[in-house]
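User: Could you write out the 3D structure of this protein bound to zinc ion? I've included everything you need below.
Assistant: Certainly. Input first, then the structure.
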Amino acid sequence: MKSRKLLICNAKIFLKDKIMHGNVIVENGKIKEIVSQLNNLENHYKEDIVYDMKGRYLLPGFVDIHCHGGNNSSFMDCEESDFENILSYYLKHGTTTIFPTTLSSDDQQLILFLDTYENYIKKNSYYKKMMGGCHLEGPYLSIEKAGAQLQSKCKEVDFSFAVDVINKYLCIKRWTIAPEMDIKYKLSTLLRERKIVVSAGHTKVLYEEMQEAFKNGYTHMTHLYSGMNSMIYVDSFRKAGAVEAALLDPDITVELIADGIHLPYPLIEIVYKIKGPDKIAIITDGMRGTGTKGQKSVLGNRKTGIKVIIKKGVAMLEDYSSLAGSITPLNKMFLGLVNNTSIPIIDIVKMCSYSPACIMGIQNTVGLIQPDYIANFIDMDNNWNVINVIYNGMIV
Ligand SMILES: [Zn+2]
């Protein structure tokens, strides 16, 4: 069979550290070559697809390492049709790699989610290559810092259950845990051995305890600032929190819900100035309400999840006591960062693609426009609107 080729020509290409005017040759779903001059290549490609960018921007597809749902579905619905519904929505908005993320639930439902994931990737589905692996958010989280997670499901680490689960489900690539629920760091130590990213979140620890956790396998912070302490007052004395510990440790990576609501833009700029683009992933933490018009939604499973309201561009608990996830896809977060911060575009691109890929250890296959990488791209106009998405070398 003749190999399928795609020639993307006349593009402003976002390479790792610069923008280059040129052309990208794609073969069998992978980037074969990047050339500045066509030299009659388009004639050679006559029988294949020639995609003329007309001078627009070509970005690497976005990598979202923390997403619960969208398009009126949640990954916790544990149905393959809901998985497809979510993936199809985000793909159209430029996300070509996604890490489906759970919420605190009982063990039975967590198993159902993992079974659904593994069954789905065994099938020959168009969307399955989008899925980079699972991110378990909970249930080993602080009840006081549960935010919109079901408090009744948050608990101390159940080590034997956790061992069973990571032995059986190789799709688990990251686990968000509150360090104080991980007695003697037994779980984080094991996860590190298995090369599963250990992420701290929904935690009430302060600076020193967070530093201790970093020594014991925690390398990443789940939605920095949300569900954790930054500086707090204890008996009129200021205490540094988990946020400050993460900001000051150069090895720790963080992720930011960059919708301008969970985190105001000045805070995003402060984190950027301290950590730099290589240590930051922009995430959606997107929930079911993303891409829907209703004012009511459910966080988590359709039947057993928490009722939330959608107001002012975000999901909130009905009593307004906590934000409950974003409804902003990455392309809109990207635009918000361009319009509301002074962060250079090249770094915004990096924080939406390469840096999250590095955090999850998949930086050799996705996140860059470079030969041998999977041909995932976003075609954006001069106002940073998504014109088209190319996924595995195919125009979506
Ligand atoms: Zn989340």
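The mean pLDDT is 95.
User: Perfect, thank you.
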